[in-house]
Design a protein that fits this description.
311 residues, alpha/beta, Rossmann fold, 19% strand, disordered N terminus
C-alpha cells in the first residue's frame, strides 16, 4: 500500500482551496472550455416512463412537481421518470484526510481540485437537461447525508456546489469499512442502470477490499475513476534527509529522499496499475490527474472516457 506522506508540522485543519476558489467561477470556466451540451436531453423520446414519486427536496426542479398530489394531499411530491438508459451523472467524492493534502506546487488541495472537476461535470450535465447527484465516501464533515438525491437544472447544480464548498477532508477510509460499504451500496441503489458514476479519489489509502464493491457499482453503470494526486506525491519531490508521517494512520519514516525515490515511484506505479486494472475489469475507465494540471484538459479526458464506456 502506498501511503501519502507530508513533512512534520503540516496540519490539515480545513480544506485548502488556494487559488482554486471561487468554485462556481472555476467550474463554469472549465465546463465552457470542454463543450456545451454533451448530448440531447434524457427526458425525451419513447423510452420515458413514469417511475414513481418522492418527497420534494429544496432545490428540486419545479417542472416535475406533482400538482395533483399537492391539491389532494397537501404534500409536495416530485414525479420521477425512468428511461431505457438513465443519463444521470453521479459524482462520488473521497473525503478522507489524504484528500486534504496540498503540496507547495499545487494551486489547492486534492479535494478542492476534485471539487472543481466535479462541479464542472455537473454544469455540463445540467446543460444537457440531465439529473446530477453527489455521494460522499468517508466521514465527510459538515455534510448531513452521504448521498444527496439527483436533481435537474441550476438548482441542483447550486445545491451540489454548496455541498462541495462546505465539505472538509478527515478520517481514514480503512477505519470504517462497514460505513464505506453502506455508502457504496446506497450509491448503487440511487444510481440507476446506465447512470454515469465518476469516482474521484487519490486511491492511495483506499482499502483493496473496496474494489469489489466498486466493481458492483460499475456492473450496470458507466464507471469512470479519476485518480487525483498532488505533484509532490506523483514525483516524490523531497530532497535530502526527510521525516515523513502518514496523513491516514500512525506511520512515521525517516529516510533519504534520493535513495528511496525510485522504489517509491515503482510502488506507486504498481499500486495505480492495480486499481486501473480493477476498474477496467468491470468495463470502466481509469483517468490519472495531477492538481497542477489545467482542469480543462483533465475534463476532456474524463468526458472522452465516459464516451468510450458508453460505446
Amino acid at each position: 500500500m502506498v501511503t501519502t506522506a507530508v513533512r512534520p508540522g503540516q496540519k490539515l485543519l480545513s480544506l485548502d482551496w488556494g487559488a482554486l476558489a471561487p468554485l462556481r467561477i472555476r467550474a463554469a470556466a472549465a465546463a465552457e472550455g470542454v463543450y456545451a451540451g454533451a448530448h440531447r436531453s434524457a427526458r425525451r423520446g419513447s423510452g420515458v416512463e413514469f417511475g414513481g414519486q418522492r418527497p420534494y427536496v429544496a432545490g428540486d426542479d419545479l417542472r416535475f412537481l406533482d400538482r395533483r398530489s399537492l391539491m389532494r394531499h397537501d404534500r409536495l411530491m416530485i414525479r420521477e421518470f425512468e428511461t431505457d438508459t438513465e443519463r444521470a451523472l453521479w459524482i462520488a467524492m473521497d473525503t478522507s484526510a489524504s484528500m486534504g493534502f496540498r503540496g507547495p506546487k499545487a494551486p489547492g488541495a486534492k479535494l478542492a481540485y476534485a471539487a472543481v472537476l466535479g462541479a464542472a461535470l455537473c454544469r455540463v450535465a445540467v446543460s444537457g437537461q440531465d439529473p446530477v447527484g453527489v455521494a460522499w465516501l468517508g466521514r465527510a464533515t459538515r455534510i448531513t447525508t452521504s448521498v444527496a438525491p439527483a436533481g435537474f437544472g441550476g438548482a441542483a447544480f447550486e445545491r451540489i456546489v454548496d455541498a462541495l464548498e462546505r465539505v472538509e477532508a478527515g478520517g481514514a477510509l480503512v477505519d470504517d469499512l462497514e460505513g464505506l460499504d453502506r455508502q457504496l451500496m446506497m450509491l448503487g441503489r440511487r444510481a440507476r442502470r446506465g447512470s454515469v458514476v465518476v469516482l474521484m479519489s487519490d486511491f492511495l489509502d483506499v482499502p483493496d477490499a473496496v474494489a469489489r464493491r466498486i466493481a458492483l457499482v460499475g456492473s450496470e453503470r458507466v464507471l469512470v475513476a479519476v485518480q487525483v494526486l498532488d505533484p509532490l506525491e506523483a514525483e516524490f519531490g523531497f530532497t535530502g534527509r526527510v521525516r515523513l508521517r502518514a496523513i491516514e494512520g500512525e506511520g512515521l519514516v525517516t529516510t533519504d529522499a534520493e535513495r528511496v525515490r525510485n522504489e517509491y515511484l515503482a510502488r506507486l506505479s504498481a499500486h495505480t496499475s492495480e486499481w486501473s486494472r480493477a476498474i477496467e475489469g468491470v468495463g470502466g475507465r481509469f483517468v490519472r490527474a495531477r492538481t497542477d494540471e489545467d482542469a480543462v484538459g483533465v475534463l476532456r479526458r474524463i468526458v472522452q472516457a465516459i464516451r468510450e464506456v458508453r460505446r
